[in-house]
Design brief:
Layout lengths: L9 H7 L1 E2 L4 E3 L2 E5 L10 H4 L3 E7 L2 H8 L5 E9 L8 H4 L7 E8 L6 H11 L7 E2 L2 E2 L5 E5 L2 H17 L9 E4 L4 E2 L7 H4 L4 H13 L3 E3 L1
Parallel strand pairs: 9-10
Antiparallel strand pairs: 1-2, 2-3, 3-12, 4-6, 4-9, 5-6, 5-11, 7-8
Helix pairs in contact: 1-8, 3-8, 5-6
Length: 221
């Protein structure tokens, strides 16, 4: 895997705690991730009522792990969007030369989770002020991006970005790209539900577990 899990700061390691096999010890509490809320299968009838948006916020393993645990989200798929070649592979994406971003395609129930509410989670789960970088993951493939599927989504995304920028939540200006959705390429099978299958992998321990803790998505064992 082409992920940088080395040279993690002491603070990050302390936050990640000691994840050995299953739960982690954070402070004096033994915790584990809350269960995903996304169903294994969705009927065509229910799918027709869902809204779709594509989001880039760095490594798609991280975004997927978070959004699968947000009530109202019904499906999350890791993939690629926004580049110049057809059917890119992960190895090609990692060069940064194809122009694609690592993204997740999110299908959500707007009666349970509005688009602005979903974007509130989006702003929280990554740093939208760092251009083409999240933590130690660097390159255009890790850019912050909202690929909208309708004019209503575009307007809502622009309003949410402006509101969040004005709020002072972040010290620096938000650089998130807001672009119309283009061809979506599903990532290789081993990227799908990556965190669920590899919770104790080094990258997951030092990057994804702290992200879940920040968003209140860990529970006591």
């Amino acid at each position: 895997m082409i992920r940088k899990a080395s040279k993690i700061t002491a603070v990050t390691l302390a936050t990640a705690a000691f994840v050995i096999a299953g739960p982690a010890i954070i402070g004096e509490k033994k915790v584990k991730p809350v269960e995903p809320v996304t169903p294994k299968k969705i009927s065509k009838e229910k799918t027709a009522k869902l809204e779709t948006v594509d989001l880039g916020a760095g490594c798609f393993w991280c975004i997927e792990a978070v959004l699968e645990r947000i009530k109202g989200v019904k499906a999350v798929e890791s993939g690629y969007m926004g580049g110049i070649i057809i059917n890119p592979t992960y190895r090609q994406i990692c060069t940064g030369a194809t122009g694609h971003a690592e993204i997740v395609r999110v299908k959500f129930d707007p009666t349970k989770l509005s688009f602005p509410q979903l974007l509130e989670v989006f702003w929280e789960l990554h740093d939208p002020t760092t251009l083409n970088r999240q933590g130690r993951d660097e390159g255009t493939q890790y850019r912050s991006a909202i690929f909208y599927h309708s004019e209503a989504q575009k307007k809502a995304a622009e309003a949410s970005k402006a509101k969040t920028d004005k709020s002072g939540k972040f010290r620096n200006p938000i650089v998130t790209e807001i672009t119309k959705a283009s061809a979506f390429y599903l990532a290789e099978n081993y990227h799908q539900d990556y965190f669920e299958a590899n919770q104790n992998a080094p990258y997951c321990r030092v990057v994804i577990w702290p992200k879940l803790e920040k968003l209140g998505l860990l529970k006591e064992e």
